[in-house]
Amino acid sequence: MPHRFPSPFHTSILPPTPARLTALAATKLPRWGLLALCLLYIVTGLVMREPWKSEDVIGLAQMWSAYDGGWAQWLAPEAAGVAVSQEGPLATWVGALCMAIFSPLLGHILAGRIPNLIWFGIASTSLWYGAYLLGRRAEAQPLALPFGGQPEPRDYGRMLADAALLLFLATLGILWRSHETSAEPAALAFHALAFYSLARMLDHPRSGALTLGLALGGAFLARGFPAVMPQLLAVAVLAGTCPALRPAARWIALFSLPLGLALSLAWWVATAQLHPYWMSGWWHWNASVFGMLTPRGLSDVLRNMPWFLWPTGPLALLALWRWRGYLRSPHVQIPVALMLAGLAMLFATREPVDAEYLALVIPCAMLAALALPTLRRGLINALDWFAVMVFSATACVVWMGWIAIMTGVPPKIARNIARQTPGFDADFSLFAFTAAVAASVAWIALIIWRFRSRPTGLWRGTVLSAGGVVACWLLIMTLWLPSINYNKSYREVSNGMAHALAAEQARTGRQECVRSSGLGLSQRASFAVFDNLRFELSGDCPLVLLQGSASVLRNALQRGEYAGSRVLWEGTRAAEFRRAPQFREYFILLRPVPAGRPVS
């Protein structure tokens, strides 16, 4: 049990703590409510959703290639025969294992999404326990009241951990990334594990150093140097500047760094020996990430960072000011070091993508939780009212859009949606409607409970933000999901091409290879995931699949290289018809006519 008050050494150098609250403010949040919220958050968006044209379907294709292939696809991940020499293999490994175990029961698409549950479990658990360990330390305790009544250290630490986890759920930037079958959820999980490990090392240096080694190795295997560099930088700074971590520095040198290096080299050396071309591409990708931030990259930072720092960013800045006298105390110094390392990595990246912001999410959630005990009641209530207004308005917009899709009323909204999803025919789903009604009722009940019961727990300032995110996410993934799938999925295109190939195989009596020209990686991955269609990159194949704009492909068929070819199938996603013809994505499957031979 940690001490309630700082040691005499600390009391002589530290100013009065800015945290002031009573034991009632550290009232325990019901575990079932927190677990149910986490479960709804991660499960919604994994089921009933098509793989979308993005890293989502590419990640699934990599898992499928490893599951359906051999050791070559495990060491050097590929998507439908194309080497994907970037990021790392860990997400592919875990996904392929889940497909091997659960595909007979769930199908390979849903089985490939089980790793998202694993990564979210690691991230949320690591954040909660790391915040708990730091929150129950003597330096973090609130001001002792004259006649007692302040919370116990364990209760106070649990309150901060609950608040940090709720703020994590309320972070808008990670909402989609947490549900995507890519390397990003794994990288976020190991950022959280590194945070927990540093907090663990304060009391248990050896076990904390071991988990830190796993975090370093896991981050490298998940996404290479861009994921592991912020952790290494933060560890180096803390090992030299944090007095409470200095005794653990030797365990970092003995356990963490060798373990992380061994895990990384076990894959790195084998792949470099067996697949040097793939590893050369991997090195090139890693090198291309680092560099001076470009003007375009700066513009992206200014546009995207608020999504990953709301609502935690403003509260984190407030915590830095309120706890400025405790910057060398572990409960402040550890998240600050991780946050500054994440910012350094962000500004050392030429053109940051969403994955570069993930290193900021965990430390900002911890700092934001530390700001809550320093806030006045009026400001906490203002945060609640802001969450109620924003998420209630969002829920109304989602419902209004669904009504417009189903009924055409209001007509202006219906026309705008129709322009984005041309040809979409909406079907009423009783399950989706019931789930959406339940989510709306639960959101209203949460608001009524918050303002009628007036809970004393300090987590009350975050529960509405987290609950609002989950409720709106559930509404979107039920009411709008069919139209989003229609707009972002290639299932119908893939099915049409598969039927055309089957018909041609029946006509000729033989199975023929298909060469692709201009086929994008997302499209190639989609055809592999939906119908296990594989296309050669080159070679003398009797069939050719072309991808390009409709006008360019028509010219190629009329006057270009493929003039006189027999067209077996042509198509596009119906959603493409919202674009001008010269920009419309189009596919044509054809049998080229050999030179000098008449068309049959």
Automatic annotation (TrEMBL):
Q: Does the keyword Transmembrane apply?
A: yes
Q: Which UniProt keywords apply?
A: Membrane, Transferase, Transmembrane, Transmembrane helix
The GO terms this record gives for MF are:
transferase activity
Entry's transmembrane regions: 29-48, 90-111, 117-135, 156-176, 182-199, 228-245, 252-270, 305-323, 332-349, 355-373, 385-408, 428-449, 461-481
- Full protein name: 4-amino-4-deoxy-L-arabinose transferase-like glycosyltransferase
